[in-house]
Amino acid sequence: MTDIIIIGGGIVGLATALQIKRRRPDLSVTVLEKENRLAAHQTGHNSGVIHSGLYYKPGSLKAVNCIRGYRMLLDFCDQEGVPYELCGKIVVATKPEQVPQLNNLFERGQQNGLGGLRKLSGAEMREIEPHVNGVEGMWVPQTGIIDYVQVCEKYAENVRKLGGEIRLGEKVTQITAGNTLSVVVTDKATYETKLVVNCAGLYSDKMAQLTQRGEIDLRIIPFRGEYYKIRPEKHHLVRNLIYPVPDPNFPFLGVHFTRMIHGGVEAGPNAVLAFRREGYRKSDIDLKELFETLSWPGFQKVAGKYWQTGMGEMYRSFSKAAFTKALQELIPEVREEDLVEGGAGVRAQACDRRGGLLDDFAILESERAINVCNAPSPAATSSLSIGLTVSEKALARF
Ligand SMILES: Cc1cc2nc3c(=O)[nH]c(=O)nc-3n(C[C@H](O)[C@H](O)[C@H](O)COP(=O)(O)OP(=O)(O)OC[C@H]3O[C@@H](n4cnc5c(N)ncnc54)[C@H](O)[C@@H]3O)c2cc1C
Questions:
Q1: What confidence tens digit (pLDDT) does each residue in 269-287 have?
Q2: pTM of full prediction above 0.70
Q3: Ligand 1: which atom is nearest the Cα of residue 32?
Q4: CA 196, CA 32: separation in Å to the nearest integer?
Q5: Which of 66, 189, 273, 376 is the most exposed place for a label (fewest CB within 10 A)?
């Protein structure tokens, strides 16, 4: 019998395992990960940005966990020797009509307790990023860059040191809740456990569904984010991180330029509906999963609401010229030939039946399970804080 089984060896599952073992080393904890390596999905395909907490509604789980998690992440990396750089970022209003939204962000950042935010004129922005085009901007000194796969490896190392087990290449296929224990079946073994903690990312809704009787009221909608890499001879166009003012009606931040911790500069990610949950290529399609997405009543409402933005994103996905044009809003000197195709990531975005894309992190509890059902960006930055929150919920049951 295992006290706690955690499904998912991404950054949230590993941080949760670590926070549980730190507090209760006597409890047995096993992480089950279906892939043969850690961080194989969202965590290993993200932008590698340490977010400051600028964007999130004050008091929301995103705001609280991002700000607390930011500090916890940096302390962990300092102790464990994981490299990171706090290079700061600029947010750029390229048109006068974006300035009110930039000002809202500035106020929000202050409400979230970020010190050192600075409004920038066009000339001041160009002192920081000489090739940027914009009417006004904002300097965010806290933002940084990191390799989240490396962070996960260190979390895992610490989990193992504390006696936790991490089993790779084991896919959970069935969960049956009994009166006192649950039975978790994988493609390799069967476990009995007192508590299931579901951190399965793109499949968190499926796992949540296995842990309870009635139908759960949300579905994960997969949104692919595609990147281009900037050719080395054009790296000088971007010193650090350059972000647009996000569209307040769309849950993603908009394509941006990111200097990566191991060198190189990426541009992206866009946000297009993925036709498969772990579909990293445009051609990837899983008819069953696609049908599940399209037939979800909430998705149909989302599609109705965002169809124009969605079509634009889809067009930019297939047309490099259109993608380049979006990037030129921020850096007019970027040319199509400066961009080479990079990787892609797929975001797990929960959507409820009524058509709301869940804006905040969501943790659903049932009798024998805790389900982390919406952990999109900035969940990597916030991982130790989310892990602490989940561990408190878990340990309250022991
Ligand atoms: C394109 C993109 C850019 C992003 N940029 C940033 C950023 O710069 N900064 C930031 O803070 N956040 C960023 N994010 C968000 C961040 O990466 C995610 O919020 C975070 O990685 C979520 O971690 P997770 O552990 O919940 O999910 P995942 O990393 O997806 O892990 C879930 C794991 O569960 C496993 N699993 C699923 N089903 C099963 C099963 N049945 N049995 C066993 N295992 C299973 C999967 O294989 C997977 O490894 C970005 C995300 C994307 C996609």
A1: 999 999 999 999 999 999 9
A2: yes
A3: 43
A4: 11
A5: 189
